[in-house]
Amino acid sequence: MEARSGKVLYMKNGHLRRPPASTTKMMTGILAIEQGDLKEWVTISQKAARVGEASIHLTAGEKLRLEDLVKGALIRSGNDAAAAVAEHVGGSEEFFIYLMNKKARLLGAGNTLFQNPHGLPAQNHYASAYDLGLIARYALTNEVFASIVRTRETTIRGSWSRYLRNTNRLLWRYPWANGVKTGTTDAAGKCLVASATREGLTLIAVVLKSHDRYRDAETLLEYGFQNFDYYAIAKGSVWGTVKVANGKPSRVTAVALWNDVFILEKDRKKDLRFKVNIVSEVQAPLRKGENLGFLEVFKEEQRIGRIPLGAGEESRKLGLIERLRKLGEGLNDD
User: Fold this and answer.
1) Which among 14, 58, 162, 275 could bridge 130 via Cys, Cβ 3.0 to 4.6 Å?
2) Whether residue 77 lies in the annotated active site
3) 121, 160: one domain
4) Is residue 296 a contact partner of residue 274, using CB atoms and an 8 Å limit?
5) 237 is catalytic
6) Where is the active site (predicted)?
7) What was the pLDDT predicted at 330?
8) Which of 25, 71, 103, 190 is flagged as catalytic?
9) In the prediction, which pLDDT does 319 show?
10) The one catalytic residue among 12, 39, 45, 77
11) Where are the beta strands (DSSP E) in the chain?
C-alpha cells in the first residue's frame, strides 16, 4: 500500500479475517496519542500489571507517564502497558475497546473487530491485512506515533528505568524501514506491519502468519519501490490565471487547493494528461482560495483524479474613483 494515496500495489488474501496479535497495539497507540494527555501520570492497576505474555514488567501502584506507556506498548510490545493505556485513556478497558472499534469503522476497516487493547488471543478479535494497512497509514500521519514506531531503542522511567528495544528487527536490517509493529501468537503466527520510505515514496507492507515476516516484508517493499513511482501535485501549484472584473489585481492565479499524489508504474509518467477547467472571468471582490474550477488528471483515457482550483491571491473591488480613473485610461488609449 502506498501511504499517501492508499493505493494497493499488491494484495493476496487481503480481506481475510485473521488474529492480528500485537499489531492491535497500533490502534491502542494512536488513540492514546489523540485522546490522552501524554504528559499525564498513570497509576498502574493490579489488573493491568497482571496481563501476561510480552511485558515491560509493570507493578501495581507504579506511576509512569502516559507517553512512556505508549512507548512500552509500541516499541517493546508490552501487553501490560497497552492495558494500562486503555484503562487510563478510556476510563475503563471496555470503553477504550469501544473507541477502538469505532475508530476502525471510521477508517473503513470493515473486517476488524477488537476485544482487547493488546492483541492476546480472544474470541472474535480479528483484522484483515488490508485493514491493518489502513490503520497504519492513518497512524503514520501523526508525527508522535511515527516517531515512536521508528525508534530502535530508548529508556523510560517509572519506579525504575526500563530499557526498550524495538521488536521490529526490520529497523536494523532494511535501511529504509521506519515502522511500524510486530505481532506474534500461536493462532496469529508471526505478523508484521512494516513501513519504509525511499526517494519520497512511503510504502506499507502487511504480512500475517508468515514463516519469515522480515524477508516477506522486504520482498513486498522492494516490489513496490522497484516497480512504482509517484507524481505529486503540490498545494499552491499554478495551473492558469483568471480575469477579475473591477478587481485589483485584475488577474489572479488558479492554484491547486490541496496536495495530491498519483502512483504509477515506473516510467509511465508520460502517460499522464491534465485538463484545466476554470472560469474565464469573475467579479471582484474575490477571496484567496475561492473556487475557480478544477484540474482533471488522466492516465491515458482514464480519469484518475480531480483537484479543485482556487484563487491564489485575493482581489479587492475597485472603488468608484479607481473605476472612473481606469475607464478614463481606457478612453485615452483609444
Assistant:
1) 14
2) yes
3) yes
4) yes
5) no
6) 22 (acyl-ester intermediate), 25 (proton acceptor), 77
7) 58
8) 25
9) 81
10) 77
11) 41-43, 63-65, 153-157, 161-165, 177-185, 189-198, 201-210, 228-233, 238-245, 247-248, 251-256, 260-265, 272-278, 281-283, 291-299, 302-311, 316-317
pLDDT band at 226 (very low <50, low <70, confident <90, very high): very high
Q: What residues make up the domain containing 37?
A: 21-228
Query: What distances in angstroms separate CA 133 from CA 14, 21, 88, 201, 241, one per listed residue?
Result: 10, 15, 27, 16, 40
- Is the domain of 224 the same as that of 241? no
pLDDT at 327: 67
- C-alpha separations of 30 from 129, 146, 217 in Å: 18, 10, 22
User: Model-level pTM?
Assistant: 0.87
Contact (CB, 8 A) for 195 and 3: yes
Q: What is the pLDDT of residues 112-165, one digit of tens each?
A: 999 999 999 999 999 999 999 999 999 999 999 999 999 999 999 998 999 999
Give me the amino acid identity at 334. D
pLDDT digits (tens, 9 = 90+) for 9-55: 999 999 999 999 999 999 999 999 999 999 999 999 999 999 988 99
Considering the domain architecture, whether residues 82 and 200 belong to the same structural domain is answered as yes
For residue 184, give the 3-state DSSP assignment: strand
Residue 145, all three cell numbers: 506515533
